[in-house]
Design goal:
eleven-stranded parallel sheet; Leu-rich_rpt_typical-subtyp; Dev_Immune_Receptor; 15% helix; alpha/beta; elongated; repeat; Leucine-rich repeat, LRR (right-handed beta-alpha superhelix); two-stranded parallel sheet
Length: 266
């Protein structure tokens, strides 16, 4: 729908291909890869990709909501201009080929709701990547992400198997351009995050597991960008709001006694 709305002329329509929701079981043979800029094959039944298309102009490719299990490396060989790749909601997709490193122009990668459990070695080549969505995956570690993807601005780890601990905090602090972070944390690491204001201020979506204390303390200055908070496996009796900042300048200019962006609390 978004691609169709974006069409302004017949010439523009020739540069995009939308075949969503058509119950396709494979990539159609009639796609003119050489001229297309945008392709959407979302909401089909495609299980495997083994072709090797040459698409020098392709910038956006939507493959979400399919049944992908395998993507062969040669598929990514000739996509030098690809900026957006959406592979979300492919529930059986467990790994990416190393050849994904050939997508040197890629900036946005959505792997949410897949079976991805580790970061592909090939991701290290995606130096221009600024947004990586790994929510609702089986990812267990983000080791090396700080040096492999130094330009990341958006990192989504909510409902993955990654818990923000001392090691992952070190990795996240290497991401100097980080602006949006979602993730999971246990109560004994929550205080550590809130002490690092630069990191905490990026948090928009947070799930806290297994609170051992009866009182949960949240700092509105540190977690100023929080939009959604989920608390599970806990028996807390009180949520305490701390709106004071240790730095007087922050307190005077930026602090607020409430979470102005928080809209969901579960």
């Amino acid at each position: 729908m978004a691609l169709w709305i974006g069409s302004t002329s017949g010439k523009e329509e020739e540069k995009q291909c939308v075949k969503s929701g058509g119950k396709l079981s494979c990539i159609p043979d009639d796609i003119n890869w050489s001229v297309l800029r945008r392709i959407s094959l979302m909401s089909n039944q495609i299980e495997e990709i083994s072709c090797c298309p040459k698409c020098p102009n392709l910038s956006t490719f939507f493959l979400g909501f399919n049944r992908l299990k395998v993507i062969r490396g040669e598929f990514f060989q000739f996509m030098p201009s690809l900026v957006v790749l959406d592979l979300s909601d492919n529930r059986d997709l467990s790994e990416l080929p190393e050849e994904i490193c050939r997508l040197t122009s890629l900036q946005y990668l959505n792997l949410s709701r897949t079976e991805i459990s580790s970061l592909s070695v090939g991701l290290k080549g995606l130096r221009k990547l600024i947004s990586l969505d790994l929510e609702f995956t089986k990812l267990k570690s983000i080791d090396g992400i700080g040096t492999s993807l130094p330009n990341l601005q958006v990192l989504k780890l909510y409902q993955s198997k990654v818990f923000i601990d001392a090691r992952s905090i070190e990795e996240l602090l290497l991401l100097e351009h980080l602006k949006i972070l979602t993730g999971n944390v246990t109560d004994w690491r929550l205080a550590s995050i809130q002490r690092v204001v630069r990191l905490a201020s990026c948090v928009q979506r947070l799930e806290i597991f297994q609170l051992s204390a009866e009182v949960l303390t949240l700092n509105t200055v540190a977690l100023s960008g929080l939009r959604q908070l989920v608390i599970e496996g806990s028996e807390i009796s009180e949520i305490k709001i701390d709106w004071k900042s240790k730095e007087k300048e922050d307190l005077l200019s930026n602090s607020s006694p409430y979470f102005k962006h928080l809209s969901i609390l579960l």
